[in-house]
Amino acid sequence: MNQQTNQTPIQRALLIPTGVHIRAAADGEPESRTITGRAILFGQRSAALWDDGEERAYEVIDKSAITRELLDKSDIKFNLYHDNQHLLARSNQGQGTLRYDVDDAGVKFEFDAPNTIDGDTALELVRRGDITGCSFAFTVPYWDTDYVSREVVHTDGGKVEILYTVRAVKGVHDMSLVVNPAYPDTHAELRELMHKVQEPDAPEDTTWREQIEDMQRAAKTYDN
Q: How far apart are the C-alpha atoms of 77 and 83, rounded to whole Å?
């Protein structure tokens, strides 16, 4: 293990296009309120997390990173837009209204949309196809090689490409229905973050700014 001192784990969110849908009701049954899909994908390379012209970084979630045991020990909120004020389901220590399963491809989920404004909103947006995927939030120390391995490739053009493989996480905190999921096509939040980091007047206390700087610091400082 090669862990930098005075560092805290980075909380990350990945966007997953997983074909979220409403489970079909049996003949003669009322319209289903069960929303199901896949919240986490294993083994799929992301688009560039950042690209500053000299260095480009990608990410893969290894299937060893997220286990049933880990999820069963977690307090996971399933929200709209990563906002706990728009709670749709929850699993606390493996118990609750959020149901999930882990297989070789990733993590599947399902829940019955609550009879609330947010539950009705989620059903309508999924039914219309306005929401087609998920995002999940997790915590990982990127500088710790027990958690994240790094492969560095120097291209013919002199550019550095970094592939992070997340092999373990400290916790999964949130799964969410989101608009325009972009993993693996692009991680929109991190792409937007890179623009903010490059702005000279960007606020110093921006959470995303701190996150990307920590990830870049880890890339530059820990051993291959």
A: 9
